[in-house]
Amino acid sequence: MAEEKEKKEEMVPVTAEYEVVDQVDDQAIIELMTGQTIQDYVYSFKQGGRTVEGLTLAGINEAANRRGGIQVEEIEYEELENSWIATAKAVDTITGSSRYGAYEQAKMSGGRSDPFAFTKAIHKAQRNAIKQLIPVPVIREVLNFYLHRKAGSGNSAPQQQIPQGGGNIAQAQKATFAIAANLSDPLEKKGITKADLWNYMKRKCGVESRNDINEMQWTQLSAELKAAETTPQLLNDLCERIKQLTTASQESEVPAPEEPADQDTAASNETEGKTAEAQGAPF
């Protein structure tokens, strides 16, 4: 009987660990998207008489940066009725190895719609792929570093609250603009202007003005642009989508009637059009 009891005590339910990791990573993703400073790189808690420790999403990214040579090359996603499913392929450019990661994120959180559900699915799928390529010694190095730093600051408890205040459309919009600004130079080098990017965003969302883009669409756009920052391949893919959508839009436009127009009126209309576009551009 004593031996059986001892074995039971050694068995640690993994559900609690997954819940803690998800809660901390949810917080980190929202901090990332809203321009805040990420707080938690590790998690540590007691469960079943033992200490459970590991790296959060931010910690895994830090470990990947220290290791070097790990890139995310493919991201795919699918929208279901109640969730988003994302898959990502990470490649170790040093060894040639590759791994896939997947994650299904519910659209509801805390009994209401989660505007960051899509972004969470994307980031967690990348996390699950990248983690498989990081050597154990590197994971242990990063884990020990941040555990010691956390203990030294007297803040040993991980942030476990699931954020409930993600309903501010301005935050998702601000995050999109910030990422787009970072991509401005790389896109221009590939022949994509700021106006091209802005028109792509409007056409993709099916709106005439940025004021008509809803919070979910801003979040999806920011995730798409953020992915383009990660690898040259994803940046090329974004450029190709922009060019394809621009071409399709131009081909579908109805030609203006070939009627003689007063030159002053035509010049005035052209000026008004340029002014309106300039006022609508976010960058």
Please characterize this protein's 3D structure.
This protein has a three-stranded antiparallel sheet with strand order 3-4-5. It has helices at 2-10, 14-33, 57-67, 117-131, 136-153, 169-189, 194-205, 215-230, 232-252, 263-280; strands spanning 42-47, 50-55, 70-79, 83-92, 98-106, 108-109, 112-113. It has 283 residues and is of the alpha+beta class. The chain has two domains: 2-153, no CATH class; 169-252, no CATH class. Mean pLDDT is 74; it is low at 1-14, 154-168 and 254-283. Helices cover 57% and strands 16% of the residues. The relative contact order is 0.11. α3 packs across α5 (136-153).
Question: What is the terminal-to-terminal distance?
Answer: 70 Å
Spatial order of the strands in the main sheet? 3-4-5
Shape: globular
Q: What fraction of residues sit in β-strands?
A: 15-25%
Per-chain topology:
Elements lengths: L1 H9 L3 H20 L8 E6 L2 E6 L1 H11 L2 E10 L3 E10 L5 E9 L1 E2 L2 E2 L3 H15 L4 H18 L15 H21 L4 H12 L9 H16 L1 H21 L10 H18 L3
Antiparallel strand pairs: 1-2, 3-4, 4-5, 6-7
In short:
The protein is α+β, with helices and mostly antiparallel strands and 283 residues long.
Protein traits:
57% helix; three-stranded antiparallel β-sheet; single chain; disordered C terminus; 10 helices; alpha+beta; 283 residues; two-stranded antiparallel ribbon
